[in-house]
Amino acid sequence: MLFAPAYHKLREQALQLDTATFGLTPAPGGIYGVLGEFGFAEGVATVVALADGSVSMYFSGGGGSIGLGQHEGPREAARKLLEAAPPVLPLAAKDAAFPLPQAGEVRFWFLTMGGPVTVSATEAELATSKLVGLHELLQDLLTQIRLVNQKKRTPLGEA
User: Fold this and answer.
1) What residues does 61 pair with on adjacent strands?
2) What CA–CA distance (Å, rounded) separates 61 from 50?
3) Could you state, in chain order, the average pLDDT of each consecutive group of 10 residues for the chain (159 residues)?
4) Strand runs (DSSP E) across the chain, as ranges?
5) Chain centroid to CA 32
6) What is the pLDDT, as a whole number, of residue 28?
7) Cβ(141)–Cβ(49) under 8 Å?
8) Which of 51, 142, 146, 150 is the most exposed place for a label (fewest CB within 10 A)?
9) Can you say whether residue 110 is alpha, beta or left, with left for phi > 0 and alpha for psi between -120 and 50 degrees?
C-alpha cells in the first residue's frame, strides 16, 4: 500500500486531538469524535466527524476533503453518527498502536476524554455485528460527502 506523508499526519492529529486547543466538548454519551476507516487493497479511507460539526475525509494515497461540516448534509449526518456511537462504546478498547484497518475491514475510533478507543469488523461480519447501525450511518455520511464533492465539480450554469 502506498501512503502519502500528509495522510499519517492528519490521521494522527485527529486521533490525538487536544480538545482544549480546539474547544471541543463531548457530545451526549461522552464522545467528541468518531473516525470511520475503510481498508482497501489499495489503501485506507478515513472519515472524521467531530462534535463541533467538523467533517473531513482523507485517503492514504493522498487527497481528501476538509471543511465539509460547513455543509448541512455532512454536518447533520455526522451529528447522527456521533449520537449513535455511545451504545457501541463498550465494545471498543484502547490500542496505542493506532492500527489501520486491513483490506475488507471497517474500523471505528471513538474519541473520548479518556483517549481514543477502537472496534472493528470485516465487511462480512458487519451484517450481524452490533456495528451495523453505526456502519449504515457512516455510509450515510459518505453519501453526503459525495454529494457536496459532486456539487463542487458541477460547472457553473448546470443544475
Assistant:
1) none
2) 23
3) 84 88 80 96 96 94 92 97 95 96 97 94 92 96 94 58
4) 31-40, 43-50, 55-59, 64-65, 105-112, 115-122
5) 12
6) 76
7) yes
8) 150
9) beta
Q: Which three cell numbers stand for residue 39?
A: 481498508
In whole angstroms, give the CA distance from residue 141 to residue 108. 14
* The residue count for the chain: 159
CA distance 36 to 51: 14
State the pLDDT at residue 155.
56
Q: 118 is written with which cell numbers? A: 477502537
Given a contact cutoff of 8 angstroms between Cβ atoms, the answer to whether 121 and 129 are in contact is yes
In contact, 36 and 108? CB cutoff 8 Å: yes
Q: In this structure, are residues 90 and 108 in contact, taking their beta carbons and an 8 Å threshold?
A: no
Q: State how far the alpha carbon of 75 is from the alpha carbons of 13, 56, 143, in Å.
A: 20, 10, 12
Phi (first) and psi of residue 114, to 5 degrees: -85, 5
The partner residues of 36 in beta bridges, in order of sequence, read 47, 108
* One-letter amino acid of 121: A
Distances from the Cα of 65 to the Cα of 31, 55, 149, angstroms:
23, 9, 8
